Amino acid sequence: MSELNTAHGYTRFGWTKVAWLYLMLIPSLVLGFHALNFERAAIGATFGLLTLCLGHSIGLHRGIIHEAFETSKTFRNVLVTLFIFTGLGGPLSWIRVHYLRDYWQNQPESPDYFAYRHGLLRDFYWNLHLTYVPTQAELVEIPHELAEDRWLRFFERTWPLYTIALSGLFALVGGWELVVVAVCMRVSAGILGHWFIGIVAHKWGYMRYAIEGAAEEGRNTFVLGLISFGEGFHNNHHAFPSSARMGHAWWELDLGWLAIQVFERLGLVWDVRAIGRPDSGKKPSAHAIGLPVGV
User: Fold this and answer.
1) Whether the Cβ atoms of residue 130 and residue 13 lie closer than 8 Å to each other
2) Which of 134, 182, 233, 265 could in theory staple to 139 by disulfide, Cβ–Cβ 3.0 to 4.6 A?
3) Which residues make Cβ contacts (< 8 Å) with residue 52, sequence separation at least 6?
4) Is 256 helix (H, G, I), strand (E, B) or coil?
5) What is the pLDDT averaged over residues 159-180?
6) Residue ranges per domain, the chain?
7) How confident is the model at residue 5 (pLDDT cuts 50, 70, 90)?
8) Residues 6+ apart with CB under 8 A from 54
9) What Cα–Cα distance (Å) separates residue 250 from each residue in 41, 247, 263, 294?
């Protein structure tokens, strides 16, 4: 498939996500130099670490989307709330896009929007400015218990308000400078960072597994794996999506997996499915083509 608009779907300009991105990015570029100092950067980085690692990588991605562990509804909602504070979007929207992307990337052929046969600049425009609309409704269906979950539906409707409220709080505590650094710069860095890690983790790096019949197999990159809490070990994730552990070798430092182990010891999560454990869950057909797995 060489066209963005195919029999299976089409793209349209994503006015809402574009407006949100540049609402965060423009103040960061214009005012960031004057507002940035060590204290504000530390606050923004700490908040980014908690929300992106615990909320996005662990709570939404591994916990809800891939069901890599079980947890209580209360703790799940705590993690989802942290995800909301990333400013990346609503949880149900992210779940639907993830399901759709996973569907196409595991087919022999994928629409260009979900494949990585193009360059960095083109993907920047496509991924951050366009929205893919499938014409087959079944491709965006998510489990009923998620689609009808009243808390997830509430978070989906209200997610921008959390960032706006946080901006007001930071403005009272630290002035407009703290808002620019700890909200605008943090959120725009999260959006751009997610996009950048996504394309790099599909185009460059080493592969441990070949996945038969999949248009995209992912790549592993040590540095991106480290700073993205394990998400940059993407070939590992493509091969074993239901595994809570994304770093498979001893030197692939997966901070998200370390956090999950802490939660497990505290009794906050259980029935953790991870490669190297006997109850690691279903695994797609894959075989090692590179370094042996260090588990």
Assistant:
1) yes
2) 134
3) 86, 190, 229
4) helix
5) 97
6) 9-288
7) low
8) 79, 82, 259
9) 31, 8, 20, 6
